[in-house]
Amino acid sequence: MQYIDVKGVKVPALGFGTWAVSGSGAYATTRQALELGYRHIDTAQIYGNETEVGRAIRDSGIACEDIFLTTKVAPSNLRAGAVTHSHEESLKRLGLDFVDLLLIHWPNPDVPVGETLDALAKLRAAGKTRHIGVSNFNVRLLREAVERHGADLLCNQVEYHPFLAQRAVLAATRRYGMFLTAYAPVARGRVFEDKTLVTIGRKYGKSAAQVALRWLIDQDGVAAIPKASRREHAAANLDIFDFSLAAEDRAAIDALAEGDRLVEWWGYSPDWDRD
Ligand code: NAP
Known about the structure:
The chain is α/β, with parallel strands linked by helices. The chain is about 40% helix and about 15% strand. Helix 1 packs parallel to helix 2 and helix 7 packs across helix 8. It binds NADP nicotinamide-adenine-dinucleotide phosphate. NADP nicotinamide-adenine-dinucleotide phosphate (NAP) binds next to helix 9.
């Protein structure tokens, strides 16, 4: 495993996403991921699977200190009281006293970001989360959070894969000493349709998904959290530490981005940075 060192914290650069798995499926895929060696797990209030993810972690026998767990506050819970209450409910579902990272899942234009950040900071001070961060924040919102409100944030989680350049937001995330978590890192399977990624993969005996993941986590301060319910997919996504991409291959992947964004949430998506 490769790690990101950020603000004195060691975060496994390759994590495991749990969106769109629920019930026994969420339990089974999380257990499987932990058995395979994942030590960074991503869930959220709105995924409806915190109970199963928490149970899988507890049943795994792996010490909680050895797993980096992220959950996220839903955009409908961003008023101060709701942040606190909904996170207490998350912890109950997870069966844990705290998480490693608590994120604002999506910005909510109806709630002042300072109010939410203050509530998150209080949860951190109370030991209910080790770190706080944001997700789906553009450069303007990041600036507001850090420069105007003085928030000490660890992470911005955004969509990032070879078809969507995130230069501006990545630069801002680094400027504020944070790391960026790439969600939808294999572009929900679209990487397999890309000839460049497939051809580069052949050269190394790797798949297009493995090439995309390696390309992501080799970038300074970038983590990736692919979701894979199939065991062979989850195992393959972890099998990316025995090769490195040549400079010309990295450059070819850098050139693929055409602004193909897969994830939007109308009413919450901010004015995305175009680059
Ligand atoms: P993704 O990880 O890019 O793609 C998941 C899809 O790709 C699944 O259908 C999976 O198939 C398939 N796949 C993964 N690895 C594969 C492989 N090696 N070979 C073939 N197929 C493969 O997309 P995502 O789930 O949207 O994003 C990942 C995680 O990011 C989510 O689960 C969630 O935790 C997080 N996320 C966060 C936000 C946010 O707003 N913060 C938004 C979206 C996602 P199988 O499941 O069949 O194996």
